[in-house]
Amino acid sequence: MGTRRAKVGVATVIFLSWLGVGYGATSDENIREKVEGQETAILADAPSVPPPLGRRNATKVIVHLEVKEVEGKLSDGVRYTFWTFGGKVPGKFIRIREGDLVEFHLDNHPSSKMPHNIDLHAVTGPGGGAASSFTAPGHSSVFSFKALNPGLYVYHCATAPVAMHVANGMYGLILVEPKGGLPKVDHEFYVMQGDFYTKGKNGEKGLQPFSMEKAIDERPDYVVFNGSTGSLLDDGALQVKAGDTVRLFVGNGGPNMTSSFHVIGEIFDRVWPEGNTSTVTENVATTMIPAGSAAIIDFKVNVPGTYVLVDHSLTRAFNKGALGTMKASGEENKLIYSGKISDEVFLPEGTKIRVAEQAEKKGAVAKTKAERIAMGRAVYATNCAACHQSGGQGIPHAFPPLANSDFLNADKIRAIKVVTGGLQGKVTVNGQDYNGAMPAWSLSDEDIANVLTYVYSSWGNSGKDVLPQEVKANRVKPGAHAAE
Ligand SMILES: [Cu+2]
Predict the structure, then answer these.
(1) How far, in Å, from the CA of 160 to the mean position of ligand 1?
(2) 122 Cα–ligand 1 center, Å
(3) Which candidate, 225, 63, 211, places its Cα nearest to that of 143?
(4) How far, in Å, from the CA of 127 to the mean position of ligand 1?
(5) Is the pTM higher than 0.85?
(6) I need a surface site. Which of 318, 321, 381, 422 has the fewest CB within 10 A?
(7) Residue ranges of the chain with pLDDT lower than 50?
(8) DSSP classification of residue 347
(9) What's the CA-to-centroid distance between 234 and ligand 1, angstroms?
């Protein structure tokens, strides 16, 4: 629908420019649109969103928003005095339609210590309503505005020092629905990012005062979704089902950080960037949401699992709290996502034939079996133990055992070929299948005889002797493959 609107929009603009009317035609229309009836806005706390309006006409909408200063949880063991629009961070979600006439009541709770006001980016007029809504504790201000432009807009307190009021949590979203509404989806959620600056370092317990110094330096201790580090984790996870379509209204209150908003494991089918409702972009993985802005994000959840919402400036996500979850229940779809199928040894190109970088050691030649075993132990430790382990037990599913190995004991010549030529493909050892790759070893005949004699004489193996001349006679030439 967004695309069609966009096309119509372009045509209209070209046509109207030609007539000399120019931009702003929609808002002109909205100025003139007749306001019929009256209703009180239903507001919602994050992550909930008020239901779609489904209204064909513009109406008079009464909004009551109450400012409260409340102590709450910022992180585990960390308390903070939030200044809020409606008792929580972010402020209540407001949903109206373009053309509506809004009668806005801003109430400042008597327990507040500060005066506050509101600047709604959806307002056309000086300060976005700020001056008209400046309200002392225990007072209530009223002003009205006509919603001329559709879109998803941030609102925030604009009382000096503005950055401090915003840093304390004074922001929220107002959606001005376009006339036709937004495309229907199964779930709509409200997520808003904000950065917090505390006297103590990240994690320091207790009631933390605001640090103006860190705010000025733009060094947040916390960057969070919906007012606290754990708001969208565990019980707070957004709940959906595989197959559902989901819409996120994502805002960024700032005051300072731009969000690189991403959901791990999802591709946004549609994004209306910067809160606009006419130009949609498709197939987006990470969308940028500036401070004081918002985005409408739609996607279909195809497979079940846990999806992680992050600010992809990743230390914010993993160290400062900008981490949330969406849990999708339902049936797996292995075609779309298989889950782990196998874990195989990875040998980058060129490592298949590994030349053990050891010059042939001349001289040391074993004279007895005991000497051969002793020398072989050293060869094993440097060349084989990394994979087959020092006790020859191997590693399940990765490296087969040499201890008590039926494969090894069955055929000495084959063992020589395995070591000199390498081994790849499926092999069964003591009833277990392995499908890895063992590199070929360019060790001397003497070393190979020694290591195999050591292996055969250890860990319950058959005790066979392997002599250098046997290795020489059965060696796999470089480039050729082992017999099996
Ligand atoms: Cu304020």
Answers:
(1) 8
(2) 18
(3) 63
(4) 14
(5) no
(6) 318
(7) 1-9, 11-22, 350-361, 482-484
(8) -
(9) 31
